[in-house]
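Take a look at this chain, tokens included, and explain the fold to me:
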Amino acid sequence: MIIVSLALAMWWWEVDGRQRAFYVDVPVFKNDIKRGELIKDDMFTTVKYEKDQLIDNYIKEQKKIIGLEAKQFIPKNIQLDVHFFESPDLLTDEKHMNWKIPNEWIYSIPNSLRRKDQIVFYEIDAESMNIKDKDKKIQIDATSKVSEDTEKRQVLITQIQDEKNKLQGRNVSIYTAVVSYVKDSANREVVSTSPVDRIDANSTIKDLEIIATKEDMDLLSAIVSKGSKFIIGYNDGGSAINESKNSK
């Protein structure tokens, strides 16, 4: 009986016991997931991982992330971190609404901007934008010398860059917001055609929409009313935070 019991115990250990003791079933994606893709129940499979190889904050139950959106590109068959996902709803309360930023407010905007990016508004004042043409031009001091032997004209050019050409905008961000939509001229959302990076896009950005409060929009409008415009930058993968700079 002892021998039979030991044999059964060894068989159970090799077949199932070792995996129960040292391995955990972890939900993973069957296929690569694109940034912004909505998570559904049929996207998952399970992979066994050794317990000492588990990452912090790994997803133990797939139901916890069903209905959320991927914040980034997620390869298949890797452990899933809770920070890979976010709510698809950008409107977090009654005060925050979707607003279109008028194109005439924008001096510069990156074409690689995408939905849910965290963007920063920098002010560029009217004086910097309205530099006279004569001050913008590069001063050229050109002299020429004709070589009688080769009958070729050699032009010696000295370029002097006018320091006034440099845009003297403010170095402090005026406002931080989250992009709700970036649309092209046909009112279609501009998205990346590559699942990993932003090198290629399906179109060119024409309209920008953000999540903001009425007070935030009044602040931006007041700045524009002085003759200023905004240079807009973004933080790839930044957290979804609306931050007013009213205190400044």
Observations:
- The mean pLDDT is 76.
